Every structure is written in C-alpha cells, then in structure tokens.
Amino acid sequence: MTDIAPGFTNVSVIVAAYQAADTIARTLASISGQTLKPKEVVVVDDGSTDGTFAAAELQAPNMNGIELRVFRTEENLGAGAARNRAIEEATGAYLAFLDADDEWLPKKLERSLTHLDGSDFILVAHDYVTGEGEAAQHHDCVSRFQETSDPFIGLYRKGYIPSCSVVAERHAVINAGGFDPALRNAQDFDLWLAMLRQPGTPFLVFGEPLLCYHVSASGIMSHTDRRLECCLKIARRYIPDLKQRSGAGVLDLWFRIAALHIEAICAFGKRRAIPGLLLTMVKLPISLLTMTIFYFVGSPQPRGHFLATDITLRDE
Predict the structure, then answer these.
(1) How far apart, in whole angstroms, are the C-alpha atoms of residue 46 and residue 241?
(2) Cα(64)–Cα(173) distance, integer angstroms
(3) Distance from the Cα of residue 80 to its chain's centroid
(4) Which tens digit of pLDDT belongs to each residue from 199-214?
(5) Are 162 and 243 in contact (CB under 8 A)?
(6) What is the DSSP string of the chain?
(7) I need a labelling partner for 126 at 20 to 30 A (CA). Which of 143, 156, 279, 315 fits?
C-alpha cells in the first residue's frame, strides 16, 4: 500500500461535474478543509460548456497538499459515466463521492473513517442537511437504516443513502460493476443496492449530518419523469434479491412502487405541473399491476459491469 502522509488517508474523492463553474471551488474547498484529508481528488468534467474544467484546475494551489486531478469528456455522458471514469483513474483504497455543487462539513472524512477503518463494512454513509442557518434542515437517514431487521430491504423501500455521504471500499465498487451509465437518474442508488445485494453484507449509516446538500431547480432531482422511469427500472432489477430474503417480498415491491409515484406526484404538485401530476396518478395502478405480474413470472436481465475491463483485472 502507498505510504500516506500524517493527516491524510488513503481515500480518492470522486467528483462528477457538469456546468459547475460557479460551484466547483466551494465543493473543492470543503474537501481541502477536511480535518483528515484524502490523498487525491479526481474530478471529471462531463462535457461542460461553462468553463468547469478551468475553474476546477484553478483550485490546485488551494488543496492543502491533496493531489487534484481533473479530466474532461468532450460530450455530456451523464453522472454515471463521469463517475466511472473517475473511479478508473482513482488510486485510493477507499472511494468517497461528492457532487460538484455540494459540500462536506470539516469532519466528514475523519468521522467516516473512524467507523470504516478496522471494520467489516464495505461502505459507510450518514445524515445530511439542506438549507443554511436557522433554515437548515437535518435529514435523518440513520433512523431509516434502523427501521428493518434487514437494512437492504429498508434501503430498497426508501433509498436512504445519500450518494455524497458514502465512503466505500474501492474493490467493492469495482466488483459491483460501477455506475450504470444508462441510468441518467438514481444510478447511485442502483450501485449501493448492487454492492449490498448479497445477504449479510455489512454496511453502516450513522447519524451525523456531515454533508450539506444544495437544492437546485435545475439539479438532477428536478427530472421527475426521468427519475421515476429509472427508479422503476431499478425496482424491477432487484426483484430476485427480494425473493431470496425472508420478508414480505411482493409487499416490499408494492411499497417501493407506491413511494416512487407519490414522490413524483408531490414533485409535480410543488411545480403546479397538473398534467404530469394527473398522469402519474393514472400510472400508479398500472405500474403496480405490471410489476406484480413481473414479480411472479418475469426474469430481470443481470446487472452489467460498466467499468473498463483492465481495472477489473488489476483489482482481482
């Protein structure tokens, strides 16, 4: 293992960036200000046209000894493809994920590694906050983690792991196949399920809000129809994993389908997009019926491996 200087840890931070020229400095500053610093940050500019690449490179002198490596793709391929490229370039034993418009609180890596080092966990995650000052809201993820005897089932039902809170073993990410670039939304949720699908795989969500998530009107969560479509595909993909566990099975599937549609209905309602709201209400019973039939007679395609072949061979 590569020697790590005091005050640093063997972590590569993965940052996928698109049209983030105005926010990437804030994000990188939250990494350079960590009480326990990563060895490197790997930024992939996913075909931005606003100067994101140059804005990221400008921060290299401000990284407090952390190596900053910035790459660029000519076209916008999506967050999954950008993260995969960063994973292929990364050299750390652990991977941490941060979006180019969000920021960590100073003890994020220190507290995460306290739980991860010397444990059997293949990933750890934690709570997060939105808003600032008195308007800040603490989002409780750890209680959802504790709701069920099988945390995988709770994750499947409620999707409680924020991607930018995760620190994971690099080899576990590689063995799971990386991010599915065909999923333009929720590819992080899909990867966590893929990493944790084997019964008994240990992971931890702890109750410290160490991530500040900045809500944006144009952010990835704003693509309501696309998010619903991708999440339904993921729900179908992991039906075999529901079946092999001792639990309600089809009831967990129904819960997930209903939760996804209610989330979309609320998103449309918040934007007063009445046609989308009504259409989603109509789709809900149809989705429940088709997914139930698929649960009993369907066979999902196996999840693919989305990283370069040579990286898999190097890590076996």
Answers:
(1) 33
(2) 27
(3) 9
(4) 999 999 999 999 999 9
(5) no
(6) -----TTEEEEEEEEEESS-TTTHHHHHHHHHT-SSEEEEEEEEEES-SSSHHHHHHTTGGGSTT-EEEEEEESS---HHHHHHHHHHH---SEEEE--TT-EE-TTHHHHHHHHHTTSS-SEEEEEEEES-GGG-EEE--HHHHTSSSSHHHHHHHH----GGG-EEEHHHHHHHT---TT-SSSHHHHHHHHHH-STT---EEEEEEEEEE---TTSGGG-HHHHHHHHHHHHHHTHHHHHTSSS-THHHHHHHHHHHHHHHHHHHHHTT-HHHHHHHHHHHHHHHHHHHHHHHH--PPPP---S-HHHHHHH-
(7) 315
CA 75 to chain centre: 22
Q: What is the pTM of this model?
A: 0.94
Residue 210's Cα: distance from chain center in Å? 15
